[in-house]
Amino acid sequence: MLQRPDEILNEASQTVGDPLERDALGGEAELTGDRAIPRRLVVVSNRLGNIRDLSQAGGLAVGIGDALAERGGLWLGASAEYQDYAASDEPLIRLERVGKIETAALTLPYEEYSLYYNGYANSTLWPLFHYRLDLVNHRAEFLHAYRQINARFAKALAGLLSGNDDLVWVHDYHLIPLAAQLRRLGVRNRIGFFLHIPFPPPDLFVATPDHEELIDDLLQYDVVGFQTETDVGNFRRSVQAANSITFDINGSAEMNGRTLLSRCFPIGIDVDSIARMANEAAEDVQIDSMRRQILGLKQIIGVDRLDYSKGLPGRMQAFARLLERHPEHERAATYLQIASPTREEVSAYADIRAQLEATAGAVNGRYADLAWTPIRYIHRAVSRSRLAGLLRASQVGLVTPLRDGMNLVAKEYIAAQDEADPGVLVLSRFAGAAEELAESLIVNPYAVDEVADAIAKALAMPLEERIARHSALLKRITRNDAAEWRRSFLATLAGEN
User: Of residues 404, 453, 470, 481, which has the active-site annotation?
Assistant: First the structure.
C-alpha cells in the first residue's frame, strides 16, 4: 500500500508502546527495569533488493537481506517506479512485509533521481572514489539533485522510525549526506554508515569541490565503516586535513560532545551457502565441465559487473599474452568472462563495453579454430547458484580490478572450490580482498605480462601447493564471513564493541 510519511508516523505512534507489536518488527532487546525495549534494525540503501529471491543480487543486497532475515527490521530504498511532483509534496512509500522483514519503497521524481544516480553518484563519486580523476564529471545540477534525493530519503525515514531505539544502518556512497539530513530533522538515533567501495586518499579526494561538505556529512554518523585499513586511513587523513580532527588508537574522535568511530569491517560471504550451491551445479554446467575434461581443457573464469574499474580489457589482453608467452596453453585453456550489464546510461560504461567486445573479438579472431574458442564472453546476469557451479568448475579464478572496495567474487571462488582438488585465485593487489587473501597469487593488473605469468603459474601449480593455499584462504573467509561482518558492525553501532 502507498502511504505518506505523516500517515506512517501516526500509525507508528499508536503501536510504539506495545512490546509485542515492536517485537514483531524484529531486533535485539535492551533490558530497562522489568521491560525489554527492542532495538529494531532499520537499513537504508539506494535500492531495495528482492528479498523474495536474492539469487541474482550483488554483495550489498545479499548482505543486507541476510542481516534483516536474521534479526528482522525495516529496509528503506528507492522504488523502481517514479512519480514527478512539486518540491513541496510528500514522497510516497509502498510498504510490504515478508516474514520478519518490512520493506519501504520510496517513490521519487525520475529526472531528479537520474541526476542523483547517473549524475553525482556514478559520474562524480564513483570515478573519484576509484581513483579515476580523468572520468570525474562534476556538475552543479548533479550535486543539487544528490542532496535533494538525500533530503527526501531523510524525510521519509523520519516518518518510519518507531523511536530513538531504532538502529539505523546506511549503505554506500549514494547516501553520504543522509545522517546530516536526519539530524536536521531532529533524529537522534544511533546511525551507522558503511562504504562498500574504496575511499580515496586526501590528495585525490579534494578533486571534488564539495569535499569538505562530504566530510562534514560523514561526521554526523556515529560509526563509519570501511572495507580495508587503507580506506580507513584515507578517511581519517581527509578528516584531519578538512577539520583538524584526529582519531585515537581505537578509531574514536570526539567532537561537539559526540563520539565518532571509524573502523575497518571487511565484508564477507555466506561460505556454506556458496559451497552448497557449487556442489549442486546446474546440469548444463556439469555437462560443460565434463566436455572440457574429455578435451583436456582447463578453464579460467572472471565474474564482474561491466565496469571500467574491473580492468576487463587488460584481463583479456593478459590471457592473450598467456598464449603468446606460454604457447603450451594454446588449445589447452579457455577463458570464460561473465560481465553483467550495469549503468548503461552512463557513457563511460558504453565505452568499456565496446572496448571489451573488440578485445574479445580480436583475440578469438587470432587464435580460435573449429574445436577451440579461447575467450567465451557472456554479457548478461547469471544467477548466484549457476555462478557457484561455474566457479567450482574453473581451475583459475581471475580477479584483477584496477581498484575495488572488497570484491566478493574472490571469496566466492575460494568457497566454491573442491577442497581435494582446488583451483587457484589470481588476485589484484588493488582489490580490498588482497588485504585478507595473501595466499592467492597477488598481481599488478596494470602489468599485463605479470598477470599472464601468474595465470601460467596457477595452471601448472602442483596439487599439494594448491591444497595448502586454498586451506589457508578457506579458513580465513570462514572466520570473517558475512555473519561476522554484520555482527561486528551492528555491535559497534549499538555501543557493545
Answer: 404
Which fold would CATH assign to domain 271-479? Rossmann fold (3.40.50)
List CB contacts of 496: < 8 A, sequence separation 6 or more.
none
Question: Could you read off the pLDDT of 21-55 as tens digits, one per residue?
Answer: 323 233 444 444 444 444 899 999 999 877 766 55
The radius of gyration computed from the CA coordinates of the chain, to the nearest angstrom, equals 24
- Phi, psi dihedrals of residue 207, rounded to the nearest 5°: -65, -25
103 strand-pairing partners: 75, 96
- 219: amino acid identity, one letter: L
Check residue 253 and give left, alpha or beta (phi > 0: left; psi -120 to 50: alpha).
beta
Domain positions in the chain: 2-268+482-493, 271-479
404 has catalytic annotation: yes
Residue 116: strand, helix, or coil: helix
Note the pLDDT of residue 161.
Answer: 94
Tell whether the model's pLDDT for residue 59 goes beyond 90. Answer: no
CA 392 to CA 381: how far, in whole Å? 18
β-pair type (258-264, 298-305): unpaired
d(CA 189, CA 161): 9
Instruction: Specify whether 453 is catalytic.
Output: no
Q: Which one, of 80, 106, 103, lies nearest residue 91 by Cα?
A: 106
The residue annotated as part of the active site, out of 196, 211, 326, 470, is 196
Choice between 55 and 59, residue whose per-residue pLDDT is larger: 59
Q: What is the pLDDT of residues 337-381, one digit of tens each?
A: 999 887 666 666 778 888 888 999 999 999 999 889 999 999 988
pLDDT band, very low/low/confident/very high, at 322 (cuts 50, 70, 90)? very high
Cell, residue 49: 533488493
| DSSP symbol at 92 | P
Best CA proximity match to 376, nearest among 293, 295, 302: 302
Indicate the DSSP class of residue 266: -
245 vs 251: CA distance, rounded Å: 12
- Which pLDDT value is given to residue 98? 86
Mean pLDDT for the stretch of residues 287-299 = 76
CATH of 2-268+482-493, one of 3.40.50.2000, 1.20.58.100, 3.40.50.150, 3.30.420.40: 3.40.50.2000
SS3 399: strand
Count CA atoms closer than 13 A to 388's CA, side-chain side. Answer: 22
Q: Tell me if domain 2-268+482-493 and domain 271-479 are identical in fold.
A: yes
How do the residues of the chain divide into helix, strand and coil, expressed in percent and rounded to 5?
50, 20, 30
Nearest to 211 by CA among 143, 150, 154: 143
